[in-house]
Amino acid sequence: MCSIRDLKSQVTRLPMLGLIAGAVLISFSGVWVKVAHVSPNVSAFYRVFFGSIILLAAALYHREIKWPKPRHLLLSLLCGILFALDLWLYHYSVQYIGPGLATIIPNFQVFILAGFGILFLKEPVRLVYLLSLPLTLAGLFMIVGVNWSELEPSYRVGVYYGLAAAVFYAAYILSLRKLQAEQMGAPPVFVLVMVSLSTAVFLAAEVLHSNDSFQIPDLQSLFSLAALGLLSHALGWILIASALPKIRTSFSGLILLLEPALAFVWDVLFFQRPTSLVNWLGVSIALAAIYLGMARKSTDADRTPGAVLIHRG
Question: Is residue 221 part of a domain?
C-alpha cells in the first residue's frame, strides 16, 4: 500500500517526466526540418498546420473551445504573426547552419526579455544578467569561430536569421503573456490552438506569396513533416504546457535546456557536424549563460505556460 510520501513523489515525478519528454520531442524539430524535401517556409507551414489539427482535436475532446472576444482574437493574430516570423527565420537558419546552432541562437531571446524588463518595467539590473551577456558572446564565438569574415556567406546569414528569430520570439512571448493574462483561467490548449491556427494562416500566405508549392514530394518528407507537426509541435507543446504549472520555474528552466542541448547533439550524430572540443565548450558556456539569463525569483505568474523562456525550436 502506497504511503502519502510515495503518492506525493509520484505526483511530482509525472510532470517532470512530461516536461523531459516534451523537451526531447521538440529537440528533434530541426532534424525534421532538415530531412524534409521542401522549402523552409513550407515546412514551417506544415509544422503548425499538422500541429493545429492535433491541438484542435485535444481542445474539442476536452470541450475547451469557446469563441474568443474580438480583443483576444486580435492578440491571437499578433501572436500568430510574430510566431510565424520566428518559425520562418528559424527554419531557414536550420538550412544554413544546421539544427544545433540554429536552435541555440534563438534562445538568446532571454536577454532581450530581461533587457525589456529593465528598460520598460523598471526591473532591477541583476549582476548575474550582466555576467551572462559576455559569457553568451564567448560561447557563440567558440562555436562559430572568431574568423567571421572567412565563414561562408550563407552561414553568416543563418546566424543573422537565428538572432532575428530571437527578437521575434521575445516579442511573441510578450504578446503571449498578455493574451494569457487577459484569458486567465482559460485552458492552455485553447490558447495554443488560437495561436497555432493564426500562425498557420500567416505562413500559408507566405507560401502563396513566394509562389512555392504545398505539395509534399515523397514519403520521407510526409513522415518528417507529420513528425514535426504532430510530435515536436503539438505533443511537445501539450506536455510542456501541462507540466509547467506543477514544477518550480528554476528547475523547469534547467530541464528545458535539454531541448537546445539535444538539438546540437542530433546535429553532430545525424548530420556529421564538424565539432571540436572548443565547440563543445562553447555550447556548454552558451547554455549556462542562457540559464543564468533566465534565473530570477520564482512567482506564481512564472508558472504559466510559456513563462519559462526557452525557444521551442
Answer: yes
Alpha-carbon distances of 80 from 89, 106, 172, 248, 283, rounded to whole Å: 14, 17, 8, 28, 30
Is 229:49 a contact under the CB 8 Å cutoff? Answer: yes
Let me know: does 170 contact 29? Beta carbons within 8 Å. Answer: no
Domain count, the chain: 1
> The pTM is what?
0.88
More confident residue, 254 or 66: 254
> Which burial class, exposed, middle or buried, applies to 112 when counting CB atoms under 10 A from its CB (0-12, 13-18, 19+)?
buried
Has residue 255 been placed in a domain? yes
- Please, what's the b/e burial string for 32-46 (b: 16 or more CB within 10 A of its CB; e: otherwise)? bbbbbebbbbbbbbb
Reported as a single tens digit per residue, the pLDDT across 42-56 is 999 999 999 888 888
What angle, rounded to 10 degrees, do the helices at 236-243 and 40-61 form? 50
Q: Answer yes or no: is pLDDT of 111 > 80.
A: yes
Asked if 253 and 308 count as a contact pair (C-beta separation under 8 A), the reply is yes
